[in-house]
Design brief:
The complex is a heterodimer. By secondary structure, chain A is α+β, with helices and mostly antiparallel strands. Chain A contains 13 helices and 14 strands. In chain A, helix 4 packs antiparallel against helix 7 and helix 8 runs antiparallel to helix 9. Chain B has two domains: 211 residues, no CATH class; 162 residues, no CATH class. A two-stranded antiparallel ribbon of chain B has the order 1-2. The chains are: A alpha+beta, B mainly alpha. The interface between A and B is large, with 41 and 39 residues. Chain B: This is DNA primase large subunit PriL.
Chain lengths: 320, 445
């Protein structure tokens, strides 16, 4: 498993296993408005600006060329063959298990454990997108080495990069939460974990996720290696909701620096460039991730989804 | 009595006031009532007649003048105390529209004059909230939020404020897409989640008057910006009133007067200085060595263009915070053409593949980022067609150009590459390594 697919295996997958009818509806609808890109030799998607007027033509292409990788644009264009006449773009969050800056495994690539951690993060982000931001039409895609969140809510599809970056900061917990508050009686300092609503709640959840998955060797900007070890040593307190005690153990003066460092790591848990890029091409659901021989597919039930069960193409089981 | 007119020039009452005023012929006429209100304002300096606005047009210009002067050392609050006197509110609404219409009639929506008018509007609102009594303040806040349509407000409706960074999404309290503003709504939505603190108290701290007032000032700033853009767009179809054009001339001369005072006397760092490449931050050094496609266009057009131009012409922008045009600092554009652009073009050439071979239109975008619109080269007559963009922040670089961000020890306390440059120049000067010192150890952006 996770070995590259040979050209023969790719051909077999596209001719015997792959069916264009398995494409998610959000790809099939308005397929003629998306740009497609292909990587035929494993050197990157250099066959771009392809357009398919309907899914039948895409099917013929895939079965004839069995590409190393297939992509479609997150954007819808009037003239996708020239990437002109931009209409709207999906809002995307890309969580790649192999690039997670904090993870509990030491696999060096991808494994069951870091994939599961990536899915856990993705599900929290989906909850925030729905619960806080009130967005709908959200799809989770297993990409082969991680997960994509694809949001097709019409309310966000025409938004520009700056607003998308702002959504990313909120959803990923990538901004240092405000500590100082004031009212008519004075100014007060409140830690994020004492505020169970709004962005502070999101940040607390993401920080919890991070602390519980740390191995102890990570670098967090602004704090020493010793503090990182202290986090790992005391993280059971967080599991039990004892954030106040946890803060005391870390040190009240170090803690604000830790919070700042966490917000920076949170930003790296998601590939931000993908979110702000309105003209990105993204791996096509149902296509083969040939580097790892896994199928990129929509996750219908995230609670039960296991990529090693659902996303392994038939040819892998027949390898010697 | 204070009404919402004091804060919100976009309320129905304010619009009715403007409609009832009728023709604009009287905006330059002296109003004794206005002068009386001004003279009888507590704390108003009346020694000098030039401090007293006699007409609506003069009041319009005074609003802007107050903003231009308030950060300066010689600023005296007593010269403009009437701007915080609620009795002025009806004249002030009319003055606001004269100011906004004059700006839209003469200047582009991205011009520094338009920006100053928008910023001064926001600053004046914040200042006015501060002088209201507590009960009055709550009442006006509630009323203005209602006028601005905050009931069942969704964050999506704040898109423009988020895009222009007037508001942060992380500062507002959200539930299922709704912005929670009212106390009752907050209790109903979150009461069950809040355990260790009184929900009413948490509401006061998280939302209370602070966030409400920020939202009001930002929303009115946005509406002002949109209004100026609409007037500008209509100016070819509707001939502006001659007195509006006269007001626009006054705005232009007052702004350039203040800018001249600014460059000529008080701030020595505002003027151009030679570039010190040794003081460039790692991301800029990386961009100058050429970048591979992927990050290439953003690195050259968005990062390097603004960095090199500001570092050469106006490195103190984040400390001085006064909007300048390239031509204020480089009147004949010689420095821009002979020093700045060659450096940018040279870095573009070093990219892989070379930027202009691959994307020739990016040359036009570079001109646009310097404030000269979408043209092949910067020409004085095109200045103001676009904004002269300041260098993107480190936070933005991390998102847009992560491959270029290799922080060194100086980066740790820095939030913008231009601040790095100023700090490094200062360090080099104090270590005796450079002739020209940065003077911005306390830069902020």
């Amino acid at each position: 498993m996770f070995e590259p697919a040979t050209p023969q295996e790719r051909r077999r997958y596209y001719r015997e296993e792959w069916n264009v009818r398995d494409l998610p509806d959000f790809i099939r609808e308005d397929i003629h408005m998306r740009e497609f890109g292909f990587d035929h030799h494993g050197r990157g998607p250099n066959d771009r600006y392809r357009v398919f007027s309907d899914e039948r033509r895409l099917s013929v292409f895939m079965k004839a060329r069995f590409p190393f990788a297939a992509y479609s644009s997150v954007a819808f264009y009037r003239d996708p063959g020239r990437r002109k006449g931009w209409q709207r773009s999906e809002l995307i969050f890309d969580v790649d298990a192999k690039d997670l800056p904090v993870r509990s495994c030491n696999c060096g690539g991808v494994c069951e454990e870091c994939l599961s951690q990536a899915l856990e993060l993705v599900l929290m982000m989906v909850d925030t997108l729905r619960g806080d931001l009130g967005l709908d039409d959200i799809h989770v895609i297993y990409s082969g080495r991680g997960y994509h969140i694809r949001v097709l809510d019409p309310e966000v599809m025409e938004m520009e990069s700056e607003v998308r970056a702002e959504i990313l900061r909120y959803t990923a917990g990538a901004r240092e939460p405000r500590r100082e508050f004031s009212d008519s009686t004075g100014t007060y300092e409140l830690e994020h974990f004492t505020i169970p609503v709004g962005y502070h709640r999101v940040f607390t959840e993401r920080a919890r996720h991070l602390f519980l998955h740390m191995g102890g060797d990570e670098e967090i900007e602004g704090v020493t290696k010793r503090t990182v070890k202290e986090i790992v040593k005391n993280r059971n307190l967080i599991r039990d909701g004892e954030w106040g005690v946890f803060k005391r153990r870390i040190g009240p003066r170090v803690y604000p620096r830790l919070v700042k460092g966490v917000s920076k790591i949170n930003m790296r848990m998601v590939d931000a460039k993908v979110t702000i890029d309105l003209k990105r091409i993204l791996r096509l659901p149902t296509s083969l991730h040939s580097k790892v021989s896994m199928i990129c597919m929509e996750v219908k039930n995230p609670e039960t989804f296991d990529p090693l069960d659902s996303a392994v193409p038939g040819f892998v089981y027949e390898r010697k | 009595m204070v009404s919402s007119l004091f804060i919100n020039p976009f309320s129905e009452d304010a619009r009715e006031l403007v409609r009832n005023y009728g023709a604009l012929d009287g905006i330059a006429d002296t109003s004794e009532e206005l002068q009386e209100i001004v003279k009888h304002t507590d704390g108003q300096n009346i020694d000098d007649n030039s401090l007293i606005p006699g007409s609506i047009m003069e009041l319009a210009v005074k609003r802007l003048e107050w903003y231009l002067k308030r950060e300066k050392r010689e600023f005296n609050h007593g010269d403009y105390a009437y701007l915080l006197n609620p009795e002025i509110q009806e004249y002030d609404v009319l003055a606001f529209y004269v100011l906004a219409q004059a700006t839209g009639a003469k200047f582009r929506p991205v011009s520094r004059e338009a920006r100053l008018v928008v910023e001064s509007t926001g600053a004046l609102i914040e200042e006015r909230f501060r002088v209201l009594r507590e009960g009055e303040r709550d009442e006006i806040t509630g009323q203005v939020l209602h006028e601005l349509g905050s009931g069942d407000l969704r964050w999506i409706e704040l898109e423009e404020l988020l895009r222009t960074r007037k508001l942060k999404l992380t500062d507002i309290i959200l539930d299922r897409g709704r912005v929670i503003i009212e106390g009752d709504d907050f209790m109903e939505t979150f009461q069950d989640r809040i355990r260790d603190r009184r929900p009413e108290r948490l509401y006061q701290l998280l939302v209370g008057s602070g966030l409400k007032e920020t939202m009001i000032s930002r929303m009115i700033m946005q509406r002002t910006e949109d209004y100026i853009a609409r007037v500008h767009e209509m100016r070819s179809r509707v001939q502006p009133h001659p007195l509006i054009l006269e007001a626009a001339e006054l705005i232009a001369s007052r702004v350039s007067e203040e800018m001249f005072a600014f460059t000529g006397t008080s701030v020595k760092s505002a003027g151009p200085g030679k570039l010190v490449p040794e003081a460039f931050p790692p991301c800029i050094k990386g961009a100058m060595e050429g970048v591979k496609s992927g990050s290439r266009n953003d690195a050259i057009v968005l990062l390097l263009t603004s960095f090199i131009s500001y570092a050469r012409l106006y490195p103190s922008i984040f400390r001085d915070r006064t909007p300048m045009k390239v031509s204020d600092l480089d009147p004949d554009l010689r420095i821009t053409r002979e020093e700045i652009l060659p450096l940018i073009y040279d870095a573009a050439e070093k990219c892989e593949p070379p930027l202009f071979e691959d994307d020739p239109q990016e040359k036009l975008n570079i001109t646009a980022k310097l404030g000269f619109g979408v043209h092949e080269e910067p020409e004085p007559e095109n200045e103001g067609e676009s904004r002269w963009y300041t260098p993107m922040s480190c936070e933005k670089i991390k998102i847009h150009l992560p491959d270029l961000c290799h922080p060194d020890r100086i980066c740790a306390r820095i939030t913008n590459p231009l601040s790095y440059y100023n700090r490094m120049k200062w360090i080099m000067k104090s270590e005796g390594k450079g002739d020209e010192g940065g003077d911005e150890e306390k830069d902020s952006e």
